[in-house]
Amino acid sequence: METAEFTIPLWLDLTAVGLGGVQGALFASGFRGERRLDLLGVAIVGIVMGFGGGVIRDLLLNQPIGALQSNWYLVTAIAASLVGMLLAAPLQRLNGVIVGLDAVVIGMFGAFGTTKALDLGLPVLPAVFVGVAAAVGGGILRDMLMSLPVAIMHVGSLYAVAAAAGCLVLVGLDAFGVPLLIAGMVCIVVTSIIRWLAVIFDLSLPEQRMLYRRKVATETGVLPVIRR
Description:
The longest helix has 25 residues, at 95-119. The protein is built from eight helices and no strands. 69% of the residues lie in helices and 0% in strands. Helix 4 packs antiparallel against helix 5 and helix 4 packs parallel to helix 6 (159-175). The chain is mainly α. The termini are far apart. The model is unreliable at 219-228 (pLDDT under 50). It is a multi-pass membrane protein. Pfam families: Gly_transporter (PF03458).
């Protein structure tokens, strides 16, 4: 995937697509009951996860969709989805594997999105926005495709926050003249660590209801009881 001054190596871009495909297939294979999917359904979810972040990134940047510029993207996504299906049974009880892959995929797409945006001349904040959108885009499309609540819209474990932190680190390093490739690698590490720690320690942003209760308690001295 080429820009005027910086090139994301094809093998690295395909690695992100492959990891996304494996993670999506593992996620889809874990459903039971009414939501269980056949082999084609699992493969489609894997392909969407592999392609989603890159497609959203390129659309936001008004660039040709990278995943459609080479045969290798679709081949990689399909192969990764098949691998994810094969690994689903052995890894059924290892939810940490799915979370770990998810964290790395978020970091990679966030780094690639921010890097490409910076190289195209976007200001810092729009570049970070593109990176975060690319990082969470695959998950959003996956949830919509499976008629699930969109993960980043609900109380959870710092999904988009981890991506934003990594992307901010990337633009900070770039401002100090660190090569984009190195800054991108640091972004992936930072994003992954924050995501892993959030899952391990069950960290999340304050719930809207909690903020409302704190506001009322501050103004009236009475803590309201809100029942579900």
